[in-house]
Amino acid sequence: MDAAGLSLRIGLTGGIGSGKSTVGKLLAQLGATLIDTDQIARQLTLPGGAAIDRIAHDFGPGMIAVDGGLARARMRDLVFADATAKQRLEAILHPLIGIETERQAAAARGAPALVLDVPLLVESGRWRAKVDKVLVVDCREATQIERVVERSGWTPEAVRSVIDSQAPRHRRRASADAVIFNDELTPDQLAAEVHTIWERWT
Ligand code: ADP
After folding, report:
1. Can you tell me which atom of ligand 1 is nearest the CA of 144?
2. Does the predicted model carry a pTM greater than 0.85?
3. Are 156 and 172 in a shared domain?
4. Domain that holds residue 93
5. C-alpha–C-alpha distance, residues 150 and 96, integer Å
6. 116 CA to middle of ligand 1, Å?
7. 117 plus 202 within the same structural domain
8. Among 10, 30, 76, 78, which residue carries the largest CB count within 10 Å?
9. Average predicted confidence (pLDDT) for the chain
10. Average pLDDT of 118-124?
11. Which residue's alpha carbon is at the smallest distance from atom 5 of ligand 1?
12. How many domains does the chain have?
């Protein structure tokens, strides 16, 4: 926290399977308040979520499932096939994610640090101005694939296609204030690295 009582804002990012969520949990154990932007996006599109009316209005009732939430598989197919649909969806979601992030940040006033978990921080650009530091969790692609196959039961090809849709490792590393190379680290070693960065930044 600085003299004005503002919390340090850490933007946490990393490719799929890098260990980003694990690092987020370790930072939370050290006293940070975690803001999970993926979870916010999901909540916005659940039944009754703040994005639902706009999605129904802009994309038609076919994009709303019987339970009243977003028809996820249908939307995934549409945005995969149509880049303008992806932009239209993002135009609805991004401002709402920003508002909810700031609401959670305000509620966490006084915390030593806020950790904004943003999978596509490097890709989307607009997040950089909202954080003081960028922490990147990095590992080899072979390790990413191995971990996600193990964690989620995906095929290696499915993991590969997500990796290919994300920023390349060198670009993510280039925008970092600190990088944790989370490959062949034991859980204790990972925790020690997170602790060192925490001590340096807070
Ligand atoms: P991300 O959020 O980047 O997709 P996770 O933090 O969920 O990645 O990590 C992916 C998987 O790899 C999880 O099952 C996690 O427990 C495991 N994992 C993360 N870091 C390590 C590590 N240093 N050693 C072994 N397993 C790890």
Report:
1. 10
2. yes
3. yes
4. 41-110
5. 33
6. 18
7. yes
8. 10
9. 95
10. 89
11. 19
12. 2
